């Protein structure tokens, strides 16, 4: 059961809240029968003394006369009982008594956040089980013992695990995307031997680890703000709109009597003091102390997994940089060690990515089926097997190869409770030892697809950014056959450091034949090494476990191991250092020589099923035949429709850098943002894209840049189709929808970092020309967070011009610029086009378009209204100012003009003006000359703004 983010219009609290929506909030569409479910609002007292709280709870009662099993649904971190309201109705409609509640410190419950402390939150769960045992609607196993299951995601998932360990009345659990050890999750260290045969095990943290500061900061920020904060931006589910709750009344009362408590409230919000202190220490030093470890392990199921003896369904996401597959792996091993039934399910999602509607429905059915069998004794036995999404890869020419929603089902989880371990394939990788540097303070740092970096990732086309000089890379040969990786791979490295220690990050990239790189899941393996040799000639050996992934490396692709010194998501050493990183040679019997080693990748065999489950063979055959017939008919129709949209390179591509041909962009809700848009831009032109808000300008530019795909039609860049990831897009420089600059870096560092992400030589950047465009002087070396909006805008435009792209696309480039800067920008763009390059400018400043652009496309309501030169747009229709060589000819000129159809003329303060109603300017001028009247001036009187308003009004 997974949550779906609400529409972007409601996510106005920024990226932090949007990211946090994935922290385990369970939101599902209400079932058809939800109206028959009764609800009862309850305030539940729990705890005693200073730790006494009131929990805000809701009881969902099914429409049945018989006692029924109960399910406690726990919400994710930052949510409240409203976050799981729809899930509760779904289960109640299936016949379960469902209890939802806001954990202490969240929603309208009182108290402070203990982070699933057994003394507080887990004790609260036992109080809720006492309540269920007293209800007549709940089936009992014995007096005071309800038949009950517990489910939840992330924060709620850990509560399910800990609750089953501490309260024997729990009968089945279904935790999702949660942790086993908070220490290993927040201070990971992927070095050392692994005492496990399971498919995704990584070494537990035994020493310092590397602090996952970005995720920890998100957790603390959400918890410090207010309980139920996420409900206000879409996590609340059914019911009245939620508002963030105030801080607990009892804490405010104490603060009034004790000034030190006021500081505690302002600093820690709803967190307990010991948790607040642990976070502050970790954030300040990045170091795992015994005090911090004690706090984290107290809230970790890892230490009590041997107490869990109830059937457990473990669901974990393959796209999760917070709680990776290794956390579910550790939970499975600990619970199954004593023979407890455990089923493991991986799905394509997690804290870093949502899941599809179909996938959410499948997970919902998995949970219901688990409880049906283990609480009711009904339905098919879900077993104790292993399910994972069919591995996907990246095609050489077709983009991402999708798994089609397929699932691979194995009888057992490899290596669990005596089961056979996963098969290991070996891939030879090679490369010489390489020096890598870590900068002082860890800045600039490499960027991966992790929370908080979405804007930059989008600006970089969805790729990661490795900093030159900060990483070593080792490649395999192009693969002769596809390699499917299911789990955590291992490799041996040799490292030396003059300081005796090193912090590194290992990643396994998929490199396509065209050089494009993909980091599966956006996942990295932090490495904390101590006691290293200082001699590069005699380095220390270290076994490294890479993150657990599910990915298919296609034939012809290369597997690239990258070891870097920095990563934006982690705390980094303050001191600058240089390390030597190389590959550890294996025994010669394995065929490896100096400079190469073997990468061990796990592979799991299983039966592949569609997301909808298996069908009888005859039903499947009938479906195949029917689909074949439909496909044949569709091919005939589609072939005719697409004949003009062939994917060849257009021969005039170099002369026509951009061409839109019948482009339409429609969304699932029926809204059409762009409709049948066709125009072309030729080399050397400066094209202005005009239109009111909602005209489709930005959507058109995003399709051009390959960020979104058109529904119909073709966009060609230099004759090539502009598809996501198309190599031809490297000839395009763009600035659309925000600067994407990193505020803690200087303007110069931002430009350098952006170019480094392209993988092209620094000499190709033409950095000095771009810096001249920015015109910031000494300010270029100050952090961007100190810049004005105009300064940020200038750096972003300079960033778009790096490499002097042949096609430059700018969306509202003059926002935030003062008049002298606008004038300078106008000259830059005109001069840039004069070199034979092409510029496209989308702007609402019509006067600037008129003075800057040579050509204009006017759009309204997603359609093109008119296209032409600025002179043609301004001069078509309207008024003409006529200047005569001899003022004595004025009356005669008026008489000549009055005799022309559709023309009226008269004197104005500006001079003689002819109003043209359908008449052509050329005909008017010819009539005056034929009458012997000397004309000194003959120019359009209206501005582009007049023409624009007239055209849009007509549309």
TrEMBL record:
One MF term in the entry's GO annotations: ATP hydrolysis activity
Short name of any one Pfam family annotated for the protein: ABC_tran
Domain ABC transporter: where?
658-886
SMART domains given for it? Answer: AAA (SM00382), PepX_C (SM00939)
The family line of this record is: Belongs to the ABC transporter superfamily.
* UniProt entry tagged with the keyword Ligase: no
Alphabetized, the UniProt keywords read:
ATP-binding, Hydrolase, Membrane, Nucleotide-binding, Signal, Transmembrane, Transmembrane helix, Transport
The residue range of the signal peptide is 1-34
Q: What is this protein called in UniProt?
A: ABC-2 type transport system ATP-binding protein
Q: Can you tell which superkingdom this protein's organism belongs to? A: Bacteria
Positions of transmembrane segments: 617-638
Q: Which InterPro entries match?
A: AAA+_ATPase, AB_hydrolase_fold, ABC_transporter-like_ATP-bd, ABC_transporter-like_CS, Galactose-bd-like_sf, P-loop_NTPase, Xaa-Pro-like_dom, Xaa-Pro_dipept_C
**Higher taxonomy:** Bacteria, Bacillati, Actinomycetota, Actinomycetes, Geodermatophilales
- Which organism does this sequence originate in? Blastococcus xanthinilyticus
């Amino acid at each position: 059961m997974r949550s779906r983010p609400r529409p972007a219009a409601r996510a106005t609290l920024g990226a932090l809240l949007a990211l946090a929506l994935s922290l385990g909030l369970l939101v599902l569409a209400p079932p058809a029968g939800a109206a028959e479910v009764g609800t009862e609002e309850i305030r539940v007292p729990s705890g005693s003394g200073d730790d006494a709280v009131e929990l805000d709870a809701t009881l969902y009662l099914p429409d049945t006369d018989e006692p029924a099993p109960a399910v406690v649904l726990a919400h994710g971190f930052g949510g409240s009982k409203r976050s799981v309201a729809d899930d509760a109705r779904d289960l109640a409609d299936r016949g379960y008594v469902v209890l939802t509640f806001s954990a202490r410190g969240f929603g309208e419950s009182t108290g402070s956040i203990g982070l699933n402390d057994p003394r507080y939150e887990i004790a609260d769960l036992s109080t809720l089980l006492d309540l269920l045992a007293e209800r007549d609607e709940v089936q009992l196993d014995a007096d005071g013992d309800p038949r009950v299951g517990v489910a939840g995601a992330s924060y709620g998932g850990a509560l399910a695990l800990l609750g089953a360990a501490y309260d024997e009345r729990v009968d089945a659990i279904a935790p999702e995307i949660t942790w086993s050890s908070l220490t290993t999750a927040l201070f990971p260290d992927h070095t050392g031997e692994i005492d496990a045969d399971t498919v995704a095990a990584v070494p537990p943290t035994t020493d310092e680890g590397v602090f996952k500061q970005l995720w920890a900061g998100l957790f603390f920020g959400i918890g410090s703000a207010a309980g139920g904060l996420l409900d206000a931006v879409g996590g609340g589910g059914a019911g009245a709109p939620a508002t963030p709750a105030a801080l607990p009344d009892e804490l405010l009362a104490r603060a009034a009597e004790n000034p030190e408590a006021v500081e505690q409230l302002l600093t820690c919000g709803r967190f307990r003091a010991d948790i607040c202190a642990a976070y502050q220490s970790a954030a300040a030093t990045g170091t795992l102390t015994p005090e911090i470890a004690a706090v984290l392990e107290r809230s970790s199921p890892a230490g009590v997994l041997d107490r869990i003896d109830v059937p457990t369904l473990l669901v974990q996401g393959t796209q999760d940089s917070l709680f990776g597959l290794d956390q579910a792996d550790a939970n499975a091993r600990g619970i199954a060690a004593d023979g407890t039934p455990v089923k493991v399910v991986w799905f394509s999602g997690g804290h870093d990515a949502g899941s599809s509607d179909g996938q959410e429905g499948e997970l919902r059915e998995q949970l219901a089926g688990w409880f049906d069998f283990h609480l009711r004794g009904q339905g098919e036995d879900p077993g104790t097997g292993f399910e994972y999404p069919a591995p996907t890869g990246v095609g050489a020419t077709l983009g991402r190869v999708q798994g089609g929603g397929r699932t691979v089902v194995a009888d057992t989880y490899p290596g669990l409770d005596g089961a056979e371990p996963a098969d290991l394939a070996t891939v030879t990788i090679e490369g010489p030892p390489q020096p890598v540097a870590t900068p002082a303070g860890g800045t600039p740092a490499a960027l991966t697809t992790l929370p908080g970096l979405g804007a930059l990732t989008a600006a970089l086309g969805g790729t990661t950014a490795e900093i030159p000089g900060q990483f070593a890379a080792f490649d395999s040969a192009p693969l002769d056959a596809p390699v499917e990786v299911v789990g955590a791979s291992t490799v041996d490295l040799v490292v030396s450091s003059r300081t005796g220690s090193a912090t590194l990050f290992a990643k396994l990239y998929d490199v396509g034949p065209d050089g494009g790189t993909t980091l599966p899941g956006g996942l990295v393996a932090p490495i904390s090494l101590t006691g290293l040799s200082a001699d590069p000639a005699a380095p220390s050996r270290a076994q490294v476990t890479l993150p657990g992934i599910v990915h298919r490396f296609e034939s012809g692709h290369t597997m690239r191991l990258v070891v870097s010194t920095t990563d934006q998501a982690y705390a980094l050493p303050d001191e600058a250092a240089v390390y030597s990183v190389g590959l550890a040679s294996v025994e010669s019997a394995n065929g490896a020589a100096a400079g190469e080693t073997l990468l061990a990748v796990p592979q799991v065999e299983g039966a592949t099923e569609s997301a909808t489950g298996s069908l009888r063979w005859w039903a499947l055959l009938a479906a195949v035949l029917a689909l074949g017939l439909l496909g044949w008919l569709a091919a005939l129709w589609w072939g005719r429709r697409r004949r003009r949209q062939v994917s060849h390179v257009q021969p005039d591509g170099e002369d026509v850098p951009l061409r839109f041909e019948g482009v339409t962009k429609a969304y699932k809700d029926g809204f059409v943002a762009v409709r049948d848009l066709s125009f072309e831009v030729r080399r050397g032109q400066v094209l202005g894209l005009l239109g009111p808000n909602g005209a489709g300008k930005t959507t058109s530019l995003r399709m051009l840049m390959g960020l979104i795909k058109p529904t119909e039609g073709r966009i060609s860049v230099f004759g090539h189709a502009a598809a996501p990831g198309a190599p031809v897009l490297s000839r395009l420089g763009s600035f659309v929808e925000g600067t994407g600059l990193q505020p803690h870096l200087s303007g110069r560092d931002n430009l350098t970092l952006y170019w480094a992400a392209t993988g092209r030589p620094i000499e190709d950047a033409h950095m000095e020309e771009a810096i001249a465009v920015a015109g910031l002087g000494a300010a270029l070396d100050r952090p961007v967070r100190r810049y004005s909006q105009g300064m940020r805008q200038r750096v972003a435009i300079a960033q778009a011009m790096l490499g002097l792209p042949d096609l430059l696309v700018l969306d509202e480039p003059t926002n935030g610029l003062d008049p002298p800067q606008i004038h300078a920008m106008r000259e830059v763009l005109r001069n840039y086009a004069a070199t034979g390059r092409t510029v496209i400018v989308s702007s609402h400043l019509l006067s600037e378009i008129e003075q800057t652009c040579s050509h204009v496309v006017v759009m309204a309501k997603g359609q093109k209204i008119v296209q032409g030169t600025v002179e043609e747009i301004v001069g078509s229709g309207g008024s003409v100012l006529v200047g005569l060589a001899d003022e004595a000819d004025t009356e005669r000129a008026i008489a000549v003009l009055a005799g022309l159809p559709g023309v009226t003329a008269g004197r104005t303060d500006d001079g003689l003006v002819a109003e043209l109603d359908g008449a052509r300017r050329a005909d008017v001028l010819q009539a005056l000359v034929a009458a012997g009247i000397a004309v000194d001036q003959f120019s359009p009187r209206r501005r582009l703004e007049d023409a624009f308003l007239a055209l849009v009004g007509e549309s």
